[in-house]
Protein backbone atom coordinates (compact mmCIF):
# COMPACT_ATOMS: atom_id res chain seq x y z
CA UNK A 1 0.00 0.00 0.00
CA UNK A 2 1.14 3.55 -0.67
CA UNK A 3 1.29 5.94 2.24
CA UNK A 4 -1.22 8.73 2.79
CA UNK A 5 1.42 11.23 1.67
CA UNK A 6 0.26 10.57 -1.88
CA UNK A 7 -2.76 12.80 -1.20
CA UNK A 8 -0.63 15.84 -2.03
CA UNK A 9 -0.34 14.52 -5.60
CA UNK A 10 -4.03 13.69 -6.00
CA UNK A 11 -5.83 16.68 -4.53
CA UNK A 12 -9.38 15.36 -4.95
CA UNK A 13 -12.17 16.20 -5.12
CA UNK A 14 -13.33 19.83 -4.71
CA UNK A 15 -11.07 20.92 -1.88
CA UNK A 16 -8.59 21.84 -4.60
CA UNK A 17 -10.54 25.04 -5.26
CA UNK A 18 -9.61 26.52 -1.89
CA UNK A 19 -6.15 24.95 -1.60
CA UNK A 20 -4.59 26.44 -4.72
CA UNK A 21 -4.47 29.98 -6.00
CA UNK A 22 -6.14 30.08 -9.40
CA UNK A 23 -4.19 31.62 -12.27
CA UNK A 24 -5.38 34.13 -14.82
CA UNK A 25 -8.49 35.25 -12.98
CA UNK A 26 -10.18 31.85 -13.22
CA UNK A 27 -12.70 31.71 -10.39
CA UNK A 28 -13.26 28.46 -8.43
CA UNK A 29 -17.00 28.33 -9.17
CA UNK A 30 -16.35 28.09 -12.92
CA UNK A 31 -14.96 24.55 -12.82
CA UNK A 32 -17.97 22.74 -11.31
CA UNK A 33 -20.30 24.38 -13.85
CA UNK A 34 -18.21 23.04 -16.73
CA UNK A 35 -17.86 19.56 -15.23
CA UNK A 36 -21.10 19.32 -13.25
CA UNK A 37 -22.13 15.98 -14.75
CA UNK A 38 -18.86 14.45 -13.53
CA UNK A 39 -19.31 15.71 -9.97
CA UNK A 40 -16.63 18.33 -10.56
CA UNK A 41 -13.90 15.75 -11.22
CA UNK A 42 -13.12 14.75 -14.78
CA UNK A 43 -10.34 12.35 -13.78
CA UNK A 44 -10.95 8.61 -13.66
CA UNK A 45 -10.79 6.89 -10.27
CA UNK A 46 -8.57 5.30 -9.24
CA UNK A 47 -5.75 7.21 -10.92
CA UNK A 48 -3.06 5.17 -12.65
CA UNK A 49 -0.18 6.69 -10.72
CA UNK A 50 2.64 6.29 -13.29
CA UNK A 51 0.67 8.70 -15.52
CA UNK A 52 0.31 11.35 -12.79
CA UNK A 53 3.03 14.01 -12.70
CA UNK A 54 4.26 15.77 -9.54
CA UNK A 55 1.99 18.62 -8.35
CA UNK A 56 1.79 21.44 -10.86
CA UNK A 57 3.66 24.69 -10.21
CA UNK A 58 3.50 28.09 -11.87
CA UNK A 59 7.10 27.56 -12.96
CA UNK A 60 6.18 24.33 -14.80
CA UNK A 61 3.33 26.06 -16.61
CA UNK A 62 5.52 29.01 -17.59
CA UNK A 63 8.29 26.71 -18.85
CA UNK A 64 5.84 24.70 -20.97
CA UNK A 65 4.40 27.87 -22.48
CA UNK A 66 7.89 29.14 -23.32
CA UNK A 67 8.78 25.77 -24.88
CA UNK A 68 5.83 25.88 -27.30
CA UNK A 69 5.53 29.70 -27.52
CA UNK A 70 1.80 29.47 -26.68
CA UNK A 71 -0.59 30.26 -23.86
CA UNK A 72 -2.11 27.05 -22.51
CA UNK A 73 -5.90 26.96 -22.02
CA UNK A 74 -7.03 28.17 -18.60
CA UNK A 75 -9.23 25.11 -18.08
CA UNK A 76 -6.39 22.75 -18.97
CA UNK A 77 -4.16 24.34 -16.35
CA UNK A 78 -7.01 24.27 -13.83
CA UNK A 79 -7.55 20.55 -14.40
CA UNK A 80 -3.84 19.87 -13.92
CA UNK A 81 -4.01 21.66 -10.57
CA UNK A 82 -6.57 19.08 -9.52
CA UNK A 83 -4.46 16.19 -10.85
CA UNK A 84 -1.41 16.62 -13.04
CA UNK A 85 -2.30 14.22 -15.86
CA UNK A 86 -3.83 10.78 -16.22
CA UNK A 87 -6.84 8.87 -17.48
CA UNK A 88 -10.21 10.60 -17.72
CA UNK A 89 -13.73 9.54 -16.85
CA UNK A 90 -14.84 11.67 -19.79
CA UNK A 91 -13.72 10.26 -23.15
CA UNK A 92 -13.90 11.23 -26.82
CA UNK A 93 -13.43 8.32 -29.26
CA UNK A 94 -9.95 6.90 -28.82
CA UNK A 95 -8.92 9.76 -26.53
CA UNK A 96 -9.07 8.68 -22.86
CA UNK A 97 -6.16 10.56 -21.31
CA UNK A 98 -4.97 14.09 -20.63
CA UNK A 99 -1.20 14.49 -20.50
CA UNK A 100 0.13 16.60 -17.68
CA UNK A 101 3.22 18.79 -17.41
CA UNK A 102 6.20 17.04 -15.86
CA UNK A 103 9.14 14.68 -16.30
CA UNK A 104 7.28 11.40 -16.82
CA UNK A 105 5.42 9.87 -19.75
CA UNK A 106 2.92 11.07 -20.85
CA UNK A 107 3.75 14.76 -20.65
CA UNK A 108 3.14 17.52 -23.18
CA UNK A 109 6.67 18.86 -22.66
CA UNK A 110 8.21 15.58 -23.87
CA UNK A 111 7.00 16.61 -27.34
CA UNK A 112 7.05 13.06 -28.70
CA UNK A 113 4.75 13.27 -31.74
CA UNK A 114 6.47 11.97 -34.88
CA UNK A 115 5.30 14.95 -36.95
CA UNK A 116 6.36 17.69 -34.52
CA UNK A 117 9.20 19.93 -35.81
CA UNK A 118 11.86 18.35 -33.58
CA UNK A 119 11.17 14.86 -35.02
CA UNK A 120 9.91 15.47 -38.55
CA UNK A 121 11.82 13.93 -41.45
CA UNK A 122 11.15 14.05 -45.21
CA UNK A 123 9.60 10.57 -44.97
CA UNK A 124 7.02 11.59 -42.37
CA UNK A 125 3.77 13.40 -43.21
CA UNK A 126 3.53 16.71 -41.36
CA UNK A 127 0.32 18.75 -40.89
CA UNK A 128 0.51 22.42 -41.94
CA UNK A 129 2.04 24.79 -39.36
CA UNK A 130 2.80 21.88 -37.06
CA UNK A 131 4.68 24.13 -34.63
CA UNK A 132 1.27 25.55 -33.61
CA UNK A 133 -0.17 22.11 -32.75
CA UNK A 134 0.46 20.87 -29.19
CA UNK A 135 -0.57 17.23 -28.52
CA UNK A 136 -2.22 16.45 -25.17
CA UNK A 137 -3.11 12.79 -25.90
CA UNK A 138 -2.01 10.21 -28.46
CA UNK A 139 -0.38 6.84 -29.06
CA UNK A 140 2.11 7.61 -31.82
CA UNK A 141 -0.37 6.84 -34.60
CA UNK A 142 -2.76 9.68 -33.68
CA UNK A 143 -2.72 12.79 -31.49
CA UNK A 144 -5.36 15.05 -29.96
CA UNK A 145 -3.97 18.57 -30.06
CA UNK A 146 -4.38 22.14 -28.93
CA UNK A 147 -4.58 23.95 -32.29
CA UNK A 148 -3.32 27.55 -32.34
CA UNK A 149 -3.12 27.86 -36.11
CA UNK A 150 -6.18 30.04 -36.62
CA UNK A 151 -5.47 32.90 -34.20
CA UNK A 152 -1.92 32.34 -32.96
CA UNK A 153 -0.18 31.12 -29.84
CA UNK A 154 -1.68 33.68 -27.44
CA UNK A 155 -5.27 32.82 -28.37
CA UNK A 156 -7.65 30.17 -27.01
CA UNK A 157 -6.82 27.10 -29.12
CA UNK A 158 -9.21 24.84 -30.96
CA UNK A 159 -8.90 21.06 -30.58
CA UNK A 160 -7.83 19.03 -33.63
CA UNK A 161 -7.27 15.31 -34.19
CA UNK A 162 -4.12 14.43 -36.15
CA UNK A 163 -3.71 10.99 -37.75
CA UNK A 164 -0.11 10.29 -38.67
CA UNK A 165 -1.02 6.93 -40.21
CA UNK A 166 -3.86 8.27 -42.38
CA UNK A 167 -2.03 11.55 -43.03
CA UNK A 168 -5.08 13.64 -42.24
CA UNK A 169 -6.57 15.89 -39.60
CA UNK A 170 -10.06 16.47 -38.23
CA UNK A 171 -11.47 19.49 -36.42
CA UNK A 172 -12.91 18.31 -33.08
CA UNK A 173 -13.96 21.45 -31.17
CA UNK A 174 -13.55 25.23 -31.47
CA UNK A 175 -12.12 25.49 -27.93
CA UNK A 176 -10.89 23.30 -25.09
CA UNK A 177 -13.99 24.18 -23.06
CA UNK A 178 -16.27 22.97 -25.85
CA UNK A 179 -14.09 19.85 -26.15
CA UNK A 180 -14.70 19.13 -22.46
CA UNK A 181 -18.42 19.66 -22.98
CA UNK A 182 -18.39 17.05 -25.78
CA UNK A 183 -16.81 14.29 -23.69
CA UNK A 184 -18.86 11.16 -23.06
CA UNK A 185 -19.15 9.75 -19.55
CA UNK A 186 -17.44 6.35 -19.57
CA UNK A 187 -19.67 5.29 -16.65
CA UNK A 188 -22.95 6.51 -18.14
CA UNK A 189 -24.05 3.05 -19.32
CA UNK A 190 -23.51 1.43 -15.91
CA UNK A 191 -26.40 0.52 -13.65
CA UNK A 192 -25.97 1.87 -10.12
CA UNK A 193 -27.01 -0.21 -7.11
CA UNK A 194 -27.80 1.19 -3.66
CA UNK A 195 -27.53 -0.59 -0.33
CA UNK A 196 -25.22 -2.13 2.26
CA UNK A 197 -23.52 -4.76 0.10
CA UNK A 198 -20.43 -5.13 -2.07
CA UNK A 199 -19.62 -6.09 -5.65
CA UNK A 200 -18.73 -9.66 -4.69
CA UNK A 201 -22.18 -10.31 -3.20
CA UNK A 202 -23.90 -8.83 -6.26
CA UNK A 203 -21.79 -10.95 -8.63
CA UNK A 204 -22.52 -14.19 -6.79
CA UNK A 205 -26.24 -13.50 -6.48
CA UNK A 206 -26.42 -12.71 -10.19
CA UNK A 207 -24.50 -15.89 -11.00
CA UNK A 208 -26.97 -17.95 -8.95
CA UNK A 209 -30.01 -16.29 -10.53
CA UNK A 210 -28.68 -16.43 -14.10
CA UNK A 211 -27.09 -19.87 -13.64
CA UNK A 212 -23.74 -18.80 -15.00
CA UNK A 213 -20.43 -20.21 -13.88
CA UNK A 214 -18.68 -18.97 -10.76
CA UNK A 215 -17.71 -15.29 -11.07
CA UNK A 216 -14.03 -14.47 -11.46
CA UNK A 217 -12.28 -11.48 -9.93
CA UNK A 218 -9.24 -9.41 -10.90
CA UNK A 219 -7.73 -6.02 -10.06
CA UNK A 220 -4.93 -5.70 -12.61
CA UNK A 221 -6.82 -3.62 -15.19
CA UNK A 222 -8.38 -0.99 -12.96
CA UNK A 223 -6.71 -1.15 -9.55
CA UNK A 224 -9.74 -2.50 -7.67
CA UNK A 225 -11.50 -5.87 -7.48
CA UNK A 226 -13.85 -6.23 -10.43
CA UNK A 227 -16.07 -9.31 -10.57
CA UNK A 228 -16.90 -10.79 -13.97
CA UNK A 229 -19.61 -13.21 -15.11
CA UNK A 230 -19.47 -14.90 -18.49
CA UNK A 231 -22.88 -14.98 -20.19
CA UNK A 232 -24.08 -17.23 -23.02
CA UNK A 233 -23.21 -15.96 -26.48
CA UNK A 234 -20.21 -14.45 -28.23
CA UNK A 235 -18.21 -12.24 -25.84
CA UNK A 236 -21.14 -11.54 -23.51
CA UNK A 237 -20.20 -10.39 -20.00
CA UNK A 238 -21.39 -8.75 -16.79
CA UNK A 239 -18.96 -6.78 -14.61
CA UNK A 240 -19.61 -5.76 -10.99
CA UNK A 241 -17.42 -3.02 -9.50
CA UNK A 242 -17.39 -1.02 -6.25
CA UNK A 243 -18.14 2.66 -6.29
CA UNK A 244 -15.61 3.24 -3.48
CA UNK A 245 -12.11 2.57 -4.78
CA UNK A 246 -8.50 3.53 -3.96
CA UNK A 247 -7.48 7.04 -4.98
CA UNK A 248 -4.58 5.60 -6.99
CA UNK A 249 -2.85 2.40 -8.04
CA UNK A 250 0.29 1.09 -9.70
CA UNK A 251 1.43 -2.22 -11.17
CA UNK A 252 4.68 -3.85 -10.11
CA UNK A 253 5.21 -6.92 -12.27
CA UNK A 254 1.97 -8.87 -12.06
CA UNK A 255 1.02 -7.29 -8.71
CA UNK A 256 -1.17 -4.26 -8.04
CA UNK A 257 -0.43 -1.79 -5.27
CA UNK A 258 -2.96 0.82 -4.14
CA UNK A 259 -3.29 3.88 -1.94
CA UNK A 260 -4.79 3.48 1.51
CA UNK A 261 -7.05 6.46 1.00
CA UNK A 262 -10.18 6.03 -1.13
CA UNK A 263 -12.57 8.00 -3.29
CA UNK A 264 -15.68 7.31 -5.37
CA UNK A 265 -15.82 6.42 -9.04
CA UNK A 266 -19.15 8.27 -9.29
CA UNK A 267 -18.33 11.24 -7.11
CA UNK A 268 -21.73 12.86 -7.58
CA UNK A 269 -23.62 9.80 -6.28
CA UNK A 270 -22.24 8.85 -2.84
CA UNK A 271 -25.22 6.61 -2.13
CA UNK A 272 -24.24 4.23 -4.92
CA UNK A 273 -22.39 1.16 -3.64
CA UNK A 274 -21.93 -1.00 -6.76
CA UNK A 275 -21.71 -0.34 -10.51
CA UNK A 276 -22.89 -3.04 -12.92
CA UNK A 277 -21.74 -2.96 -16.56
CA UNK A 278 -23.01 -5.42 -19.15
CA UNK A 279 -22.61 -6.10 -22.86
CA UNK A 280 -25.63 -5.20 -24.99
CA UNK A 281 -26.70 -8.76 -25.74
CA UNK A 282 -27.12 -9.59 -22.05
CA UNK A 283 -28.44 -6.27 -20.78
CA UNK A 284 -32.13 -7.17 -20.49
CA UNK A 285 -31.41 -10.47 -18.70
CA UNK A 286 -29.04 -8.75 -16.30
CA UNK A 287 -31.48 -5.94 -15.45
CA UNK A 288 -34.36 -8.40 -15.02
CA UNK A 289 -32.23 -10.50 -12.67
CA UNK A 290 -31.20 -7.47 -10.60
CA UNK A 291 -34.86 -6.42 -10.30
CA UNK A 292 -35.99 -9.91 -9.30
CA UNK A 293 -33.29 -10.02 -6.63
CA UNK A 294 -34.73 -6.87 -5.10
CA UNK A 295 -31.78 -4.52 -5.62
CA UNK A 296 -32.54 -0.82 -5.53
CA UNK A 297 -31.03 0.46 -8.74
CA UNK A 298 -30.81 3.28 -11.26
CA UNK A 299 -30.14 2.47 -14.91
CA UNK A 300 -28.81 4.63 -17.74
CA UNK A 301 -32.29 5.05 -19.24
CA UNK A 302 -33.98 5.91 -15.93
CA UNK A 303 -34.92 9.55 -15.22
CA UNK A 304 -32.66 11.41 -12.78
Describe the protein.
With 304 residues, this protein is α+β, with helices and mostly antiparallel strands. The protein is built from seven helices and 18 strands. It is elongated.
Topology:
Layout: H1 16-19, H2 30-34, E1 47-48, H3 58-68, H4 74-82, E2 86-92, E3 95-98, E4 133-138, E5 142-147, E6 158-163, E7 168-173, H5 176-182, E8 184-185, E9 191-194, H6 199-210, E10 216-218, E11 226-231, E12 236-242, E13 244-246, E14 248-252, E15 255-258, E16 262-264, E17 272-278, H7 283-292, E18 296-298
Parallel strand pairs: 1-14
Antiparallel strand pairs: 2-3, 2-8, 4-5, 5-6, 6-7, 9-17, 9-18, 10-11, 11-12, 12-17, 13-16, 14-15
Radius of gyration: 21 Å
Task: Output the structural class.
Answer: alpha+beta
CATH superfamily of the largest domain: SMI1/KNR4-like
Q: Helix content range of the residues, please? A: 10-25%
Q: How is the largest sheet built, in terms of strand order?
A: 10-11-12-17-9-18
CATH class of the largest domain: Alpha Beta
The SSE order reads HHEHHEEEEEEHEEHEEEEEEEEHE
Anisotropy-based shape:
elongated
Give the overall average pLDDT: 89
- In terms of DSSP E residues, the strand content is 25-35%
> What is the number of beta strands?
18
Number of domains: 2
Detail the poorly predicted runs. 1-8, 12-29
Q: Briefly note the CATH topology name of the largest domain.
A: SMI1/KNR4-like
Which CATH architecture of the largest domain is right?
A: 3-Layer(aba) Sandwich
Largest sheet properties: 6 strands, antiparallel
Number of helices: 7
In short:
With 304 residues, the chain is of the alpha+beta class. Helix content is 19%, strand content 28%. It has 2 domains: 4-185, SMI1/KNR4-like (3-Layer(aba) Sandwich), CATH 3.40.1580; 191-298, no CATH class.
